[in-house]
Design a protein that fits this description.
Helix content: 25-40%
Number of helices: 18
Distance between the termini: 20 Å
Number of strands: 22
Strand order of the largest sheet: 8-7-6-9-10-11-12
Strand content: 15-25%
Radius of gyration: 30 Å
Shape: elongated
Length: 526
């Protein structure tokens, strides 16, 4: 497989990938060239410079994953990637400390006029009185966005003896209060703060959220910091508010369009301090984000789930360690259930019994959907697009959790309802790390779900199994395993054959024509 590294990243990322994949490095890649060459690649790594548009994604016929070596993914059309089943990952923690420290540095530099004081002193001017600053102690810092970076800035501000008030639509109020942070509304933060720092993603709802109207609801003399995303603060409005004296100062690291032109509205304005998007520009952060993304791409191209995918439900490392062993089992249970019913599937119920019920199982359920849909679709079905594909087909999905168990420590039971109310239920578990099917409907079995299974309910009479074996042998189909289970019907047993290859249609027809064979269902595992 081929990996395109479109923006410069740490050599450590290349070292992680080069043994397994063909890595092509194209730093500062023009958009036209990216569009031209992207069909060759299975994975793409970008930073903030390259724009992965819907047009690029549409042309990327082999692309399986896009890795953003950083936090924000606003330069990637995530909905377009999701619709194509392309995983988008980032590095949410790789540059957290760097961005946190840069925000604090910008706040301190602005408060004490360090950039302009340095600049004038370098020119031989001694303007000590002119650049008198303000202290952070006893000032109120408003933090808009209490994620990793916002929380990190708040923690450091408390060390400066500032009062911190935080706003976030998804804030954990209990955690914030434990940290010593007051929780408020957006309006509270705007009205009460002496310094305001922004740490929100750029979305339709946050674009331009701090505009002229909002700035004039702030304290006169407020100071603003934006090391998050350009476009959250309206740049022209900020310039005007600073020139008017409503805003005493601003420190800005990110811009609506980068790099900025020479006539940008924030350049040359007294008390506006700017840096060229340096938030993640530390040696440690560049290594961290590159390594995170490279490891994620390596996992994805090997078929393993990735914890930092932005178009999938987030899963912590501890939870992933618990659920990951069940993915293969779940997918095979879904594949088997699909094979045992006819027509369109209307409903999927997944029941979790045992300690597995204590953790988030959404990704395991998604793995079941992968197995169901992969059996009937030519398109690639993965953890990204499976839920959407199920929704398009009006498949209702539900989870049931129960800590009670009977025979096994943990079980996953897949129940599928199809057209004409056909229902099939298949239960599986893990023996160590090995997947086993342990029940089909009411029949207790013990089968390894590999390659191909043939299920034959049959009359419990001498010679029936032997006849089936003879037919398989004559057709050159090897039987590598067999199990016979009793059923709830008198004189009816269930024969399950594990085969090394698919049964030809004419052979299957010959088996079903036997008087003692009631049915024959074949399950092919991909």
């Amino acid at each position: 497989m081929k990996v395109l590294i479109a923006d410069g990243v740490s050599q450590m990322a290349v070292d992680i990938l080069k043994d397994d994949f063909d890595c092509v490095i194209k730093d500062k890649l023009p958009a036209e060239e990216l569009l031209q060459i992207i069909p060759e690649f299975d994975a793409l790594i970008v930073r903030s410079a390259s724009k992965v548009t819907a047009e690029v994604i549409d042309a990327a016929t082999n692309l399986k994953i896009i890795g953003r070596a950083g936090v924000g993914v606003d330069n990637i059309d995530v909905p377009a990637a999701t619709a194509r089943g392309i995983i988008v990952i980032n590095s949410p923690g790789g540059n957290t400390n760097a961005a946190t420290e840069h925000t604090c540095a910008m706040m301190l530099s602005m408060a004490r006029n360090i950039p302009i004081a340095n600049e004038t002193l370098q020119k031989g001017e001694w303007n000590r009185k002119q650049y008198t600053g303000v202290e952070l102690k006893d000032k109120t810092l408003g933090v808009i966005g209490m994620g990793r970076i916002g929380s990190g800035v708040a923690k450091r501000a408390l060390a400066f003896e500032m009062k911190v008030i935080g706003y976030d639509p998804y804030i954990n109020e209990e955690r914030a209060k434990d940290m010593g942070i007051e929780v408020g509304t957006f309006e509270d933060v705007i009205a009460k703060s002496d310094f305001i720092t922004v740490h929100m993603p750029l979305t339709d709802s946050t674009r331009g959220m701090i505009n002229k109207e909002v700035m004039y609801k702030m304290k006169k003399g407020v100071r603003l910091i934006n090391c998050a995303r350009g476009g959250i603060i309206v740049e022209e409005d900020l310039r005007d508010a600073v020139l008017d004296g409503q805003v005493a100062g601003a420190a800005v690291d990110v811009f609506t369009s980068e790099p900025i032109p020479a006539d940008h509205p924030l350049l040359g304005v007294k008390n506006i301090f700017v840096t060229p998007h340096l938030g993640a520009s530390t040696v440690e952060a560049q290594v961290g984000v590159a390594v995170d993304v490279a490891q994620g791409i390596k996992a994805a191209l090997h078929g393993d789930p990735v914890m930092t995918a932005v178009n999938m439900a987030p899963v912590s490392k501890s939870v992933m360690q618990v659920i990951a062993p069940y993915f293969d089992l779940a997918e095979r249970l879904g594949c088997a259930a699909r094979a045992l019913v006819e027509g369109g599937i209307k409903k999927l119920d997944v029941t979790y019994n045992g300690e597995i019920a204590d953790v988030s199982t959404r990704m395991i359920t998604t793995a079941v959907l992968k197995g169901i849909l992969s059996a009937e679709l030519d398109d690639v079905v993965n953890f990204v697009n499976a839920p959407g594909l199920a929704k398009e087909r009006n498949i209702k999905v539900s989870e049931v959790k129960n800590k009670n168990t009977e025979r096994f420590a943990n079980t996953v039971t897949v129940t599928v309802t199809a057209s004409k109310n056909q229902t099939v239920s298949i239960q599986g578990t893990l023996f160590g790390d090995k997947a086993r099917i342990v029940q089909i409907n009411d029949n207790r079995v013990d089968v390894a779900p590999r390659r191909c299974l043939l299920l034959c309910p049959h009359n419990n009479r001498p010679g029936v199994i032997g006849q089936v074996g003879s037919i398989m042998g004559a057709a050159g189909v090897n039987i590598s395993g067999m199990q016979v289970s009793t059923t709830s019907k008198e004189d009816v047993n269930l024969m399950i054959l594990t085969l090394d290859s698919e049964v030809p249609a004419d052979v299957l027809k010959l088996i079903t024509s036997m008087e003692e064979i009631y049915d024959a269902k074949m399950i092919m595992f991909k």
